[in-house]
Amino acid sequence: MERRDFFKKAAVVAGAAAVGSTTAEASATHQPIDNRKVSDVAFPEKRPLIMYSDRPPLLETPRDVFTSILTPNDQFFVRWHMPDIPTHIDPETFTISVNGLVERELKISLNDLKTKFDQVEVTAVLQCGGNRRSAFTPIAGGIQWGSGAMGCATWKGVRLRDLLDQAGLKKDAEWIGFNGSEKAAYYETPEFIRELHLEELDDHVILAYQMNGEDLPYLNGYPLRLVIPGSYSDSWVKMLSNITVTNEYKHLFFMDVAYRVPDNECECETHEKKAPKTKPITKMNVKSVIGYPTNGGKLSLNSHVVVRGVAFDDGHGIKKVLVSTDEGKTWQEALLDDGKAGRYAYRAFRFAFKPTKLGKLIFMAKAINNIGEEQPFANEIKWNHGGYKYNGIDEVTVEIV
Ligand SMILES: Nc1nc2c(c(=O)[nH]1)N[C@H]1C(S)=C(S)[C@@H](COP(=O)(O)O)O[C@H]1N2
Ligand SMILES: [Mo]
């Protein structure tokens, strides 16, 4: 199958990058995207990516990767809140604990997870709620991500539900807390914990140990992470160490202060007047990203150009992607892939175009989902102080020469 060949090829390229030719490798395969260049250093298991910080690692995927359904593991973006990530995890001795309001406390080894439970797979988009935050005006606080704080992978693991069934929830169980294994640099920084309400659980929520047919890369949460298809990735706790069932919501920083939008119809507020109430960001809105061409690209007059990109939402599914070459005055439908990767995956799109005028040209892409939601124009985007859920119509500017 195509995918297997692809990974063979990817492994060779990654190998080349690892022996030191990172700069050359980077400039040969990636153009500077949205004015940000890929770094000239690469993290283990990663090709050079756009780096915002090295401790904690904050790495963005370049735009030109978004032309196919699966994002290669070595180009998948990375976001950690805390610098003290364990440097060694032994797969032989690692266990995941399930405790709190359960009939039986569990400590399950990786091997038991892989052999004693139903194994399930889902292809799903993982996207940071702050993806494309840099497009908000005025500036919203936080990492000024471009378009690449997202990726799509096939995740393999076990259903969270099956684990909880084995532990047996007590009658008053209501909240499930998930801990990552990393530590803050200062005591007062809270741990990265996400609490899910029992009602948010369905059979699609899994504990994944594999991504695109391989162990999770270390930086993407080895050996085990939570996968919640359709939801923003702040909930997809990485490097899971502990699951605690409680009957009371603990007000923890990350989910109680960060990762929230105004609790009103437009989910909006102004810089001067913050909304009085907020709610979690949870489900992803409809979005598309153009992977080819990229900003600053030069295309020949009268040549055959195939604009390519990806579109997704929270699982309702993409109905169509429209492309405009006249700054949004008229739109034409792009071709979509067969959709067999499922409703949580990227839909890849293609649009054939022949430029007939010299000079600057803007390609715009707009996705519409199965319940009729569509991306707004960039100037219609509603602002929120956290800079979350940006989904303006995507655009890239090229030059026809
Ligand atoms: N343990 C742990 N899990 C975490 C985080 C974290 O800081 N620690 N960050 C979350 C956020 S905000 C994002 S965007 C995703 C990033 O996942 P990735 O690094 O695999 O791309 O992980 C989520 N899970
Ligand atoms: Mo995030």
Average of the residue pLDDT scores? 89
Label the structural class: mainly beta
Give helix and strand order, one letter per element, not per position.
HHEEEEEHEEHEEEEEEHEEEEEEEEEEE
- How large is the share of residues in beta strands? 25-35%
User: Helical element count?
Assistant: 5
Please list the strands of the largest sheet in the order they lie side by side.
5-4-13-8-9
CATH topology of the largest domain: Sulfite Oxidase, Chain A, domain 2
What's the name of the CATH homologous superfamily of the largest domain?
Answer: Oxidoreductase, molybdopterin-binding domain
What sort of overall outline do the alpha carbons produce when their principal axes are compared?
globular
Q: What's the number of domains? A: 2
CATH class of the largest domain: Alpha Beta
CATH architecture of the largest domain: Alpha-Beta Complex
The parts where pLDDT drops under 50 for at least 5 residues are 1-33
Query: Could you estimate the helical fraction of the residues in percent?
Result: 10-25%
Question: Would you summarize the structure shown here?
Answer:
The protein has five helices and 24 strands. The chain has 401 residues and is mainly β.
Describe this structure in words.
The chain is mainly beta and 401 residues long. It folds into two domains: 1-283, Alpha-Beta Complex (Sulfite Oxidase, Chain A, domain 2); 287-400, Immunoglobulin-like (Sandwich). It has five helices and 24 strands. The chain has helices at 2-18, 22-29, 110-116, 160-167, 253-256; strands at 50-54, 57-60, 78-79, 95-100, 106-109, 120-127, 150-159, 175-180, 193-197, 206-211, 214-215, 225-227, 240-246, 260-262, 278-280, 287-292, 298-299, 305-312, 318-324, 332-333, 335-336, 347-353, 359-369, 394-400. The strands form six sheets. A five-stranded mixed β-sheet has the order 5-4-13-8-9. Strands 6, 7, 10, 11 and 12 form a five-stranded antiparallel β-sheet that branches. A five-stranded mixed β-sheet has the order 17-24-23-19-20, with no helix packed on it. Strand 4 and strand 5 (106-109) form a beta hairpin. Helix 1 (2-18) packs across helix 2. It is globular and about 70 Å long. The structure holds the ligand Nc1nc2c(c(=O)[nH]1)N[C@H]1C(S)=C(S)[C@@H](COP(=O)(O)O)O[C@H]1N2 and molybdenum atom. Molybdenum atom binds at residues 79, 128-130, 233-234.
